[in-house]
Amino acid sequence: MDFDPQVVRDLRSRDKSIVYGDIEDPDLLEHLPFKSASCIISTVPESAFSLQLYETLQRHDFKGRVFLTALLEKDFELLAGTGHKDIIMPHKMAAEYFYDYLINNVLKDNAGKK
């Protein structure tokens, strides 16, 4: 589901399954075709909406994996407090990736040139 019509058009043009909608609409969550999905990835940064999505999926006995997004540590703690384990922290992940890349590629290459 995405609220950006351009994203929806682009994904549909690549034969991807997507629903146009706003996560703030609780009625829409009840009608999402998630039964056939094996994995749901939510990039919504607001933890309240992530919790609403997660609770809806639990009510409907969704068996697949659910990845939720937390931008701040307090949001991570709130989501983790539900027992949920698959929480994406994009800024932290990007920083860790950059650090690993810097250490393993850039600095290693520079050390060999001296």
Strand-helix topology:
Elements: H1 5-13, H2 26-30, E1 39-41, H3 47-59, E2 65-69, H4 73-80, E3 87-88, H5 90-112
Parallel strand pairs: 1-2, 2-3
Structural summary, described in words:
The chain is mainly alpha-helical. The protein is 51% helix and 9% strand. It is built from 5 helices and 3 strands. Strands 1-2-3 form a 3-stranded parallel sheet. β2, α4 (73-80) and β3 (87-88) form a beta-alpha-beta unit.
Structural key phrases:
globular, 3 strands, 114 residues, 5 helices
Concise overview:
The protein is mainly alpha-helical. Helix content is 51%, strand content 9%. A three-stranded parallel beta sheet has the order 1-2-3.
Main sheet attributes: strand count, strand direction, barrel closure:
3 strands, parallel
How would you sum up the global shape?
globular
What radius of gyration results from the CA coordinates? 18 Å
Question: What is the number of helical segments per DSSP (H or I, 4+ residues)?
Answer: 5
The termini sit apart by 51 Å
Mean pLDDT over all positions: 87
Stretches where pLDDT is under 50 for at least 5 consecutive residues are none
**SSE run:** HHEHEHEH
Question: What fraction, in percent, of the residue positions are helical?
Answer: 40-55%
